[in-house]
Amino acid sequence: MAKQYVIGVLVANISGVLSRVSGMFTRRGFNIDCLTVGETETAGVSRITVAFHGDEDIKERIVTQLEKLHDVKEVEVLDQHETVIRELLLIKIRNTAENRQDIMTAVEIFRSKIVDYSNSALVCELTGETSKIDAFIDLMKPYGIMEMCRTGIVAVERGENCLKTDMN
Questions:
Q1: Helix (H, G, I), strand (E, B), or coil: what is residue 21?
Q2: CATH superfamily membership of 84-154
Q3: Are the CB atoms for 155 and 37 separated by under 8 Å?
Q4: Which long-range contacts (CB under 8 A, 24 or more apart) does 26-31 make?
Q5: So what's the architecture of 3-78 in CATH?
Q6: What is the pLDDT of residue 166?
Q7: For the sheet containing 34-39, what is the strand order?
Q8: Residues contacting 153, CB < 8 A, separation 6+
Q9: Span 24-61, pLDDT tens digits
Q10: DSSP one-letter string for 52-108
């Protein structure tokens, strides 16, 4: 039975690293569900968060192959029960007099916020777990989604556990 895994990868922040990481998945026929990249608190280090589905064997092979890549400094499978996982959504919804109040109510209930307003469109920002993002999107479909973009997940372990490396 395939389950979703989330892996945190610390890499040198240099050209070509992302290509090598994503290429490793492609060459081995593994599908990436989600991939996000950003700088960390350490200069010259980026953090890649990768989500994928597979079994225990596939997870182990992916971790082993990632650890072999040049400029990959640390790889860790994140326990989803011990990890804060969030995603960001920006969604533009058709704004009409008939739907405005319903949208505003949903925005309040989902703890979203309106970040741009015009007579014809509302842009909402929402952060949360993927299931919350999906539910908000489904709720907004009848009102007319004009455009949307999602960041993909970012993840950090709870408590004292940290994905860190000494880049020397």
A1: helix
A2: ACT-like. Chain A, domain 2 (3.30.70.1150)
A3: no
A4: 28/61, 28/62, 28/65, 30/54, 30/58, 30/62
A5: 2-Layer Sandwich (3.30)
A6: 63
A7: 34-39, 45-54, 3-12, 72-78
A8: 6, 34, 36, 49, 51, 85, 86, 87, 130
A9: 999 989 999 999 999 999 999 999 999 999 999 999 99
A10: EEE-HHHHHHHHHHHHHSTTEEEEEEE-GGGEEEEEEEEEEEE--TTTHHHHHHHHH
